[in-house]
Design goal:
Strand content: 5-15%
Shape: globular
Number of strands: 12
Number of helices: 14
Radius of gyration: 27 Å
Largest sheet: 10 strands, mixed
Distance between the termini: 98 Å
Oligomer: single chain
Length: about 450
């Protein structure tokens, strides 16, 4: 019996040595880069592969931050394409869960934000405090600029932090939020190539990435032409041609079906009133010297209405409609809800589109500390719902939303979180969740869709 036990122990010992030798051999086949805990092999799973692509992409973009601009944008576009391919299966699943886009809900969107990781510095989050035009009043308020990431030029704080508009993960998160809200058309703030607002950097290079991600979520993109330097009839013709030639063939490029059945691009023209009607008429009337009408670049041009008299200028200029933009009921004639019925009647009688702009509230005291009198409290979402209700009363063909992410003026519906620093206590959406304004937008999108069906009966 003792001899049998000894033999069994020897066999067991030899077996253990055999297993150990196999494990050592296998260990030599493992890649050198695969340290402890490294997800070697997990990239085969679509979801983890997507995360790995995003991490690698961020590092690549950071390494090239000081390189050639064209190269960076090209790489960014490649990252976006690769990321979308990696997550396409998850999007198909999301399609079944998300509410359908409402292409009559247009939402203003800004890509002017930057941070050191993607841009080498903070852009727009470090917005300066703007002085009052009266020096006596200006002297009573602080000067300087904000110091991100803890101190940003906004009264609310984004859930995504002081993000860069170049970050593909941010762009995708924004598209998902806008789709969740059941909006359908992104009204993209746009300056011509090489131009920007006084606090920003050129962003035209981002348009292809925005279009690609919008298409992924079945959203459309139109353009909000900002008041760039020397904007007139000639430069507008050139820039509209540029946009349509470069982006018009993209499946996410928005075209609006008119009452006559034509499919036309649409352009919102911010601060259109600063240019005299005679200049606009050169571009927008059939007999104009720079007429864009009945050319391959014809489109629907929507002017900003601020004062009541602007409606006559808009009509004389040859615009196709008007929008009100400001989310401040009572701030201007156009933004005052009680004037929308008469504006809609004027538009109907002159074959113009009336596009009221609704917003969740307004507060810009982080950049205009003297402008407290124009603050509009959100009242836990009631202000937003009141604006939607006023818009539906006039039965508009399109409703615009100010805004998805204009953080400086506190009109955003993007997710915001509570945040307190040593110097600042930010406003938030409590007692509701960070996505409350996305949910309210989705609610009113469905309500608008149902009421619009009744209007057409």
């Amino acid at each position: 019996m003792a001899r049998f036990r000894r033999r069994t122990c020897i066999i067991l010992l030899l077996f253990i040595l055999f297993i150990c030798s196999i494990m050592m051999a296998l260990k030599t086949l493992r890649p050198d880069r695969a340290g402890f805990g490294d997800p070697f092999g997990l990239g085969l799973l679509p979801e983890l592969q997507q995360r790995t692509v995003l991490l690698d992409s961020k590092q690549n973009l950071l390494n090239r931050a000081q390189g050639d601009t064209v190269t960076r944008v090209s790489n960014l576009h490649s990252v976006a394409v690769n990321t979308m391919k990696a997550s396409m299966s998850s999007v198909k699943k999301l399609e079944e869960e998300l509410s359908s886009p409402n292409y009559n809900f247009h939402i203003f969107y800004y890509t002017w934000y930057g941070n050191p990781q993607f841009d080498g510095k903070y852009i727009h989050w470090n917005h300066p405090l703007l002085p009052h035009w009266d020096p006596k009043i200006a002297n009573n308020y602080p000067k300087g600029r904000h110091n991100p990431p803890e101190d940003i030029g906004a009264n609310f704080y984004p859930e995504l932090g002081s993000y860069s508009s170049k970050d593909p993960t941010v762009i995708e998160a924004h598209m998902k939020q806008m789709r969740t809200a059941s909006t359908g058309v992104i009204v993209l703030s746009w300056y011509p190539p090489g131009m920007a607002d006084e606090n920003g950097e050129p962003t035209d290079d981002l348009v292809p990435v925005v279009l690609d991600y919008a298409h992924k979520y079945n959203l459309k993109v139109t353009f909000h032409i900002e008041p760039y330097k020397d904007r007139d009839d000639r430069s507008m013709y050139h820039n509209v041609k540029y946009i349509i030639d470069k982006y018009g063939s993209h499946p996410a490029f928005y075209r609006h079906k008119t009452s006559t059945g034509r499919l036309l691009p649409m352009f919102y023209v911010y601060d259109s009133y600063v240019t005299i009607p005679e200049i606009w008429a050169n571009l927008l009337t059939v007999s104009g010297s720079q007429s864009i009408r009945n050319t391959p670049y014809d489109a629907l041009f929507i002017a900003l209405l601020v004062e009541e008299r602007h409606k006559h200028d808009i009509h004389r200029s040859g615009f196709d409609g008007m929008y009100t933009y400001f989310a401040t009921n009572g701030f201007s004639y156009g933004s005052s809800h009680h004037n929308w019925a008469s504006l809609k009647a004027f538009c109907d009688s002159n074959n113009l589109m009336f596009i009221p702009s609704v917003g969740p509230g307004y507060i810009d005291t982080s950049i205009r500390p003297w402008n407290n009198h124009n603050t509009r409290n959100r009242v836990n979402g009631k202000y937003y719902e009141t604006a939607f209700s006023a818009a539906l009363l006039v039965r508009p063909e399109i409703i615009s939303i100010t805004s998805f992410n204009e953080w400086h003026e506190g009109t955003q519906i993007e997710k915001a979180i509570p945040k307190r620093t040593g110097q600042v206590v930010y406003l938030d959406y409590k007692p509701h969740k960070p996505n409350v304004y996305l949910e309210l937008t989705q609610k009113w999108s469905e309500k608008y869709r149902k009421e619009q069906e009744q209007w057409l009966m």
